[in-house]
Amino acid sequence: MTGKADTRLRRLPEQGSKDFNLACAIIDDARICHVGFVLDGQPYVVPMAHARDGDELLLHGSVASRLAKNLAAGLPCCVTITHLDGLVLARSAFHSSMNYRSVMVFGSAAPVTDPDKKVRGLDVLTEHLLPGRLAELRASTRKELNATTLLSLPIERFSVKTRKGPPDDPKNETQVPIWAGVIPLSLRAGKPEAAPDMPAGIARPRYLKSM
Amino acid sequence: MTGKADTRLRRLPEQGSKDFNLACAIIDDARICHVGFVLDGQPYVVPMAHARDGDELLLHGSVASRLAKNLAAGLPCCVTITHLDGLVLARSAFHSSMNYRSVMVFGSAAPVTDPDKKVRGLDVLTEHLLPGRLAELRASTRKELNATTLLSLPIERFSVKTRKGPPDDPKNETQVPIWAGVIPLSLRAGKPEAAPDMPAGIARPRYLKSM
Questions:
Q1: N or C: at which end does chain A have fewer Cβ atoms within 10 angstroms?
Q2: Number of domains in chain A
Q3: A126, B92: Cβ pair inside 8 Å?
Q4: Is the pTM of this model over 0.95?
């Protein structure tokens, strides 16, 4: 990349993109998404757990009921995933901003009904939420599978927007004596809290070792 | 609170609520929201910066254009704010869950056009994003104010959903030899990164001292 391209990136830090790999990276880095759909003219935006299986976005709602039923019926939806990566402190409020990575996926979600695909999709979800954990869990029962709605949305129509880097003040303001820069933000894990009803003597599993 | 109420909370950890103070606490604890609206039958969900001024939710988009114009025209919208507070690891995938706090606010956003109110709203936003910073910034120019869209949505029609606490496995599964519990998650600030074009000798301001 040339210095010129670098400058351009800094001057236009807010960019739209159709980069599939970038979209996937943003999706993979998140554990929840916001799903928008419309019922009787009223928009709803609901948080759901998600994972990615190749070019499919898998959705799993803890509040299945109305949401999942309507989405599964093929309503148009927009699934947005956003990482707030930092506060961008410019020399003025007007030029202050945020660093973020965001992807919107448009389409209609379809329920995953094939039993093998559904088991696989839920496994992908479990493994996405905490890599390494799937291996120690029992298989879901048929009753549990039937009580679970898993939706699939193709990652075909999407739009990525990101901003990164330092503030972009006009040149005549960079010399004012005000601190400017970025406060990075990230979602971090705290110390795992064992369930109070866990029997004594269960070691902390390897997949939690780094926490 | 009695022990009985505690149990009930644990058995029904996922609760809907119309508690205004809880809604405000969730709003105040976040820096971005997801705004859903519909154009030509297609739902959109867009991240925006927000702040709260009493019983009003203020919205400020970095990508103003189409979004702000359409929202300002009075389109019905749904603004959702979600904190992912933890991964809830049960003994099975089916009972695993997430701890979260989420609020949906429904209504139609109106542009804040009164100059004094707009200045005040933007100040509230600046102060919300980083308490203490407003005092050192110059006032916005008239041109900047005109180039900024600030929207206001009353916090009247809203719904709060939260889940907290340990996993809720069926009693006959709590004794299996699998680690169960919660991995807390939170958005945390990293070390502030000074802008590369900042003049030498500018001290780190007090509002960044704790970072």
A1: N
A2: 1
A3: no
A4: no
Gyration radius of chain B over CA positions: 21
Q: How many residues does chain A have?
A: 211
**Domain span including residue B116:** 15-186
Examine residue A209 and state whether it is found in any structural domain, yes or no. no
Does the ipTM exceed 0.85? Answer: yes
Distance from CA of A166 to the nearest CA of B (A): 6
Size of interface A-B (CB pairs under 8 A): 261
- Asked whether residue A102 is assigned to any structural domain, the reply reads yes
pLDDT digits (tens, 9 = 90+) for A75-89: 899 999 999 999 999
Q: Which CATH number characterizes residue A62's domain? A: 2.30.110.10
Q: For residues B153 and B79, is the Cβ–Cβ distance under 8 A?
A: yes
* 8-state DSSP, B40: T
Measured CA to CA in angstroms, residue A37 lies from A66, A150, B39, B40, B105 at distances of 11, 17, 11, 13, 15
Tokens 């609760």 correspond to B15
Contact A30, A48 (CB under 8 A): no
